[in-house]
Amino acid sequence: MTVEQPDIQISREDQQMGFSVSWLAIPVTAKDSALATLGFVETNEREWLPESSLVGASLPTGWYVVCFEHPSPAALKPESLRLLSRQAIEVACQVEEHAMVSTSACWSDGKEQWFVVHDAEDGPTNLEVVGNPPAALEEIRLAKLRLQESQRNVDHVFDVPLALAESLVGFRHDAAFDDSEEGMFAVLARGRGV
Fold first, then answer.
1. What highest taxon heads this organism's lineage (predicted)?
2. Cα–Cα 20 to 30 A to 180, which of 51, 93, 121, 131?
């Protein structure tokens, strides 16, 4: 059932405009083992916004999110997701606004449970769905399709995978974040792992 996730490439010029990022969410109770598997450690450096190339944050929803400054990091490749999902359920999201490609996926027990992708090259209403995504997908999809019909100059279907992941985890790459004094994002350092 595994669908090859897009290996999104971006040019230096494209990095100037739009988001080209990804994130992985795991239950906060599995944070330490997941970070160890990935070879990441939290540093004492904090940020209000995920501006460093690799950051992590505990969310009030009970999830821990790792944010990557690249849309296709090694941690989101099927081999890594398979290994990590043996420890805990995980939700992954990729955002490439330059190519208007977005994905979300859920893995557990070493298997991809579902995968949703929008690629604007395949049309403004393109949405591929594999597996059994949550029921919320249909409501989100219909709402975005209605918007697409009324505002044809904006790619609203691009938002479907992102909104689905957000509905589960409570995180979105372009949302307003907690403005606590120290910042909610811990800069992560690379060590050994996947």
1. Bacteria
2. 93
pTM of the model: 0.86
Cα angle: 118, vertex 71, 125; to 5 degrees: 10
For residue 62, the domain's CATH number is 3.30.70.1270
The reply to whether 13 falls in a domain is no
| Total tally of structural domains belonging to the chain | 1
Is residue 120 situated within a structural domain?
yes
Read off the pLDDT of residues 53-101 as tens digits, 9 standing for 90 and up.
999 999 999 999 999 998 889 999 999 999 999 999 999 999 998 899 9
CA distances (Å), origin 17, targets 11, 12, 173, 177: 11, 10, 15, 21
Q: Which DSSP string corresponds to 16-50?
A: GSS-EEEEEEEEGGGHHHHHHHHTEEEEEEEESS-
SS (HEC) of 87-147: CCCEEEEEEECCCCEEEEEEEECCEEEEEEEEEHHHCCCCCEEEECCCCHHHHHHHHHHHH
Spatial separation of the C-alpha atoms in residues 105 and 78, rounded to whole Å: 11
**CA gap 132, 115 in Å, rounded:** 8
Q: Which domain holds residue 185?
A: 18-190
In terms of Cα–Cα distance, which of 36, 77, 42 is closest to 57? 42
How far is it, in rounded angstroms, from Cα 173 to Cα 155? 17
